[in-house]
Amino acid sequence: MGMGSVNISIKKEAYNFLASLKERNRSFSDVILEFKEKESARGSAKRLLKFAGVLKDLDWDKKERLMRKFRESFNKRLSGK
Q1: Which residues lie closer than 8 Å to 32 by C-beta, 6 or more apart?
Q2: For residue 32, which phi and psi values (nearest 5 degrees)?
Q3: How far apart are CA 35 and CA 22, in angstroms?
Q4: Is residue 54 part of a domain?
């Protein structure tokens, strides 16, 4: 399926802004799609940042002790002792 085109009407100020970002070898579509890609990346970062700090209140020493006991128990069962 080929890429189609659509004519749109924008304010002169918007046109001037896009024109200021457009280089000679790029289309206005290229400029707009670059904004889309940047916004998508920004959205991904925002989704990731909502998890920042969720593990800060865990007792990591206790977790390590429990994991050590689990490993010891597993190794004992594995070796048949």
Answers
A1: 18
A2: -65, -45
A3: 12
A4: yes
**Model confidence pLDDT, tens digit, residues 30-71:** 999 998 888 888 888 788 788 888 888 889 999 999 999 999
The number of distinct structural domains making up the chain is 1
Look at residues 53, 33, 52 and name the one whose alpha carbon lies nearest to residue 41: 33
Amino acid at 38: K
- Could you tell me if 57 and 71 are in contact, meaning their C-beta atoms sit under 8 angstroms apart? no
Residue 73 phi, psi dihedral angles, 5° rounding: -65, -45
Q: Does some domain include residue 7?
A: no
Amino acid at 48: L
Token code pair at residue 20: 């200021």
Q: Is residue 22 part of a domain?
A: yes
In a domain, 5, yes or no: no
